[in-house]
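Quick sanity check, Methyltransferase:
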Amino acid sequence: MELGFQSPALGPENRLDSDKLLAPLRAILPEARLEWLPLPEVPELGLLLLNQDYPQHTLTPEQSLRIMQYPAYWCFCWASGQVLARYLLDNPDVVAGRRVLDFGCGSGIAAIAAARAGAKQVVACDLDRDALLASRINAQGNGVVLDYSEDFFADQQHYDVILVADVLYDRANLPLLAQFLERADEVLVADSRVKDFNFPGYRHLGLYRADTVPDLAESEEFSRVNLYRGIAEARQL
Ligand SMILES: C[S@@+](CC[C@H](N)C(=O)[O-])C[C@H]1O[C@@H](n2cnc3c(N)ncnc32)[C@H](O)[C@@H]1O
């Protein structure tokens, strides 16, 4: 299968893994390709993502349904992921020398930025095994090493920082905001989905703007990303 590899750090040995990712995508979008794409807000990094010119406006109802049934989140870099990655690269002290977990890593964008910013260890965590495979390829393509977890609850390790980018679209994840504060000294949440974000321990850091890559033509409101910082209660005293 043809791939748009342009990362100097990726070679033919990555082809097998990327073919594993492409196969389920092609079952939905037969013309789908994976391309190494630049990120407008994070030009230091690139990611293997769905081709920019995928036929978003000509999907049949059946294709749209199949996309919903197999949400390949990992083949997009979400606006929130880009904003969080930008923040970490601009503020490396937040993660430098620290143990970090990226919850709902998708493509691995925030985890990779944390590793680039000098984190001591970064665990990319996602319940979707394809996301972990994509994160592995993307980490290699950006010259960083990550660890991986498919179950946040499988161990009770404590982290210095937990990163959370665009996982609150699923309301079932909202109660996790409290649990993150029990599992880490600090939590950084990037989100464009929740209105009236008001959770104990979290405060607003800023409002940023980014678009999902490749473009999903989402409503403009989802390009406005809020960043929140949560501090564990014990550290607030
Ligand atoms: C919209 S994507 C965001 C990916 C990436 N953080 C970004 O910003 O580009 C959401 C990701 O969170 C993962 N996810 C959602 N709920 C999760 C959960 N409870 N545990 C682990 N991963 C979860 C999904 O599988 C998906 O890969």
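Posting the structure with no commentary besides this: Residues 1-5 have pLDDT under 50 and may be disordered.
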